Structures are given as C-alpha cells and as structure tokens.
Amino acid sequence: MGGKAVELDAGGRTVRLSSPDKVVFPEPGFTKLDVARYFLAVGDGIVRALRDRPTTLQRFPDGVTGEFFYQKRVPKNHPDWIPTATIAFPSGRTADEMCPTEIAAVIWAAQFNTLTFHPWPVRGDDLDHPDELRIDLDPQPGTDYADAVRAARELRALLDEFGLKGWPKTSGGRGLHVFVPIEPRWDFTGVRRAAIACGRELERRMPDAVTTAWWKEERGERIFVDYNQTARDRTIASAYSVRPRPNAPVSAPLNWDEVDDAVPEDFDIGTMPERFARVGDVHADMEKHAYSLDALLELAAQDERDHGLGDLPYPPEYPKMPGEPKRVQPSRAKHEK
Question: 42-98: per-residue pLDDT in tens?
C-alpha cells in the first residue's frame, strides 16, 4: 500500500520516503511524494522560515481527511544531524523540539506525514526572547480574506509610523499573517504587550472592521487581531507550510504590492513551485532586519496610563498571569452578578 519506498536527495543528504504513492489530498490527488517534492522545490524558503527554531509538527498519518495530531517532542530515533532545543511550556513542563537547519530535516518530517510546521518565534540559542512579532489577522464569521486585506493595509501604515516593517503572508486559509523581525530584547510577555498595543491602535483606526476582543461573543463581523498568538507556546504556521484543506493550499509569502490582488486559492503545492522558481523567497531579506518594540511598548504604557487599558485575557490553559483581567466571558459575568 502506497508503493515501494523511494530515496530523495535533500540538500546532499539521502532521506527515505516510505509509501510515496499514498494519497494525502484526495480531491486533487496529491500524494506523499508530491508533498515531499513540493518541500524540496521551496527548500530555501521553508528552511529560512524554520531555521534554528523549535518546531512543532502537525502530522496527518491518514491524509488530510483523517485524524491529525501535534507532535511537540521530537521522536527519540531522530537523526543526530537534526538539532533540538528544550522548550518550556507555561505549565512548567518541558520538551525537546526539533530545530531544522536544512531541507533534509523538513523531508524527514514529511516522511512522518507532516504537512504544517509550527515554529516558535525564538531561536535555539535564546529560547526566552522572541525575534519575531507575529500579527495574526483572523477573519470572524461574516468576514473574509478581502476584509483581512483591508486590515493589513492599515496595519502596514501603522507599523511604518512606529518605525517597523512587516512581511505579509497568507495563512493558507482566510486570514493574513504579518511578521515583524525584532531585536531579541523582550520576553514573551513584553512582545505580547506590544502586540496588544498594536491591535488596539488598529482597532481605534478601524473600529467597525477590527477587534481585539478575546471573547467571541464580542467580536462581531470584524477581523480579530489574535494577540495571544504571541503568548509562550502559541505558534503560527510557517511560511510555505501546507495547510489541511481539500485543495492543498500553502501559507504563501507575499510582497506588499501583491496583497491587494492575491487570493489564498492562488497558492497550493501544485502552483507554488513555479512561483518559487520564478520569484524565489520574497521574504528572504527578513533576516537582515531587527526592529525595536520601544515605540509600541510606549503606546502600551500610554494606553494603560491614560485610558486604563491594561492586559487582556490569556488562553484558558494558561496559568493566571499577573495583571490579567478575569477570565470570564462577559455574558456569564453579568449573569453571575
């Protein structure tokens, strides 16, 4: 079942791929080998996105229509040429995660039916200080990708005013991600605080279109700036990751001048290799930059000082954090009074 194993040349290393003919995406008919060949075709790009980052693997043993799971702990039998790092969860528990440094590590993970790579925003040599501010523009019911694009345009202007530059990419679904490379000077709490300030400012500029409301009942038909994606152990699918949707879409890095016209359906494992061969990794220059969060953190301090806007709720599995408001949805809180 799935055909005879093949050996692939991945950057000079030979990686064995079992069951290469196994169908992973039934609708377009893409196989396990098709997925591996896709990763090889965008190798420089996905390695750039993952390099030295602790990475959680989203695995689909029975293809995209079957069950999936997130693998945080790297298998004990992983090759010794794949580095690892010991990351700490909010619970205090730890795990050794793979930190890819070459395309062979990506193909090795594809052998285990990994489609989506979820890298931490830190590097293996400094696990407590993110070097990326990741802004997730998440369409809520009643909104779509076009609404995320409008929010992204205003976000670009906002970032520019605060001396920052973002690199946009499709989520592979209906949303957009904007990554800002930053100096690794702030811990997760500080970076999250900057993300909240950024989201609130975007909300002020587009009150009918953008929200930072954590509780779904308060979001309405707006784009949610998911600030908690910057909390420790929260990750966002990497650039070039394959997403578990019927047409095998990928998270596609974009130039800002492409954002208005591109749509997520343009980018899948069948079309992205041609684009990559033509334009390369359009986010390749991200690593040449490292911006300061000082201006956004000053905005956060001003919001708290002048408007009483402090912290926002953490996800439910997190321990109670200092300064965090009650983690009770508003409708229930009113009922309990």
Answer: 999 999 999 999 999 999 999 999 999 999 999 888 999 999 999 999 988 999 999
How sure is the predictor about 209, in pLDDT bands with cuts at 50, 70 and 90?
A: very high
Cα angle 233, 236, 239 (rounded to 5 degrees) comes to 140
Q: Tell me what pLDDT residue 323 has.
A: 87
Predicted confidence band at 327 (pLDDT cuts at 50, 70, 90)?
confident
Q: Is the pLDDT confidence value at 335 over 60? A: no
CA distance readout (Å), 32 to 60, 196, 204, 205, 219: 11, 39, 46, 45, 39
Averaged pLDDT of the chain? 96
Burial class (CB within 10 angstroms; exposed 0-12, middle 13-18, buried 19+) of 50: buried
Rg (CA), the chain: 20
Q: Which amino acid is at 232?
A: R
Counting Cα atoms < 13 Å in the Cβ hemisphere of 277 gives 9
Task: Give the mean model confidence (pLDDT) for residues 136-162.
Answer: 98
Sequence-distant (≥ 6) Cβ neighbours of residue 278 within 8 angstroms:
none
Burial 189-212 (b: 16+ CB within 10 A, else e): ebbbbbbbbbbbbbbeebeebbbb
Bridge partners, 16 (sequence order): 7
Q: What is the DSSP letter of 256?
A: G
Residues whose CB is less than 8 angstroms from the CB of residue 82 and which lie 6 or more positions away in sequence, other chains included: 74, 98, 99, 100, 101, 105, 108
* Residues 132, 121 contacting (CB under 8 angstroms): yes
Sheet strand arrangement including 176-181 = 167-170, 176-181, 132-139, 223-225, 210-211
Answer yes or no: are the C-beta atoms of 46 and 242 closer than 8 Å: no
Question: What gap in Å lies between CA 44 and CA 81, rounded to an integer?
Answer: 18
Each as own residue / partner, the long-range contacts of residues 293-296 (CB below 8 Å, 24 or more positions apart, any chain) are: 293/133, 293/182, 293/183, 293/185, 293/186, 293/190, 293/191, 293/194, 295/162, 295/163, 295/164, 296/162, 296/164, 296/194, 296/197, 296/198
- pLDDT for residue 235 is more than 60: yes
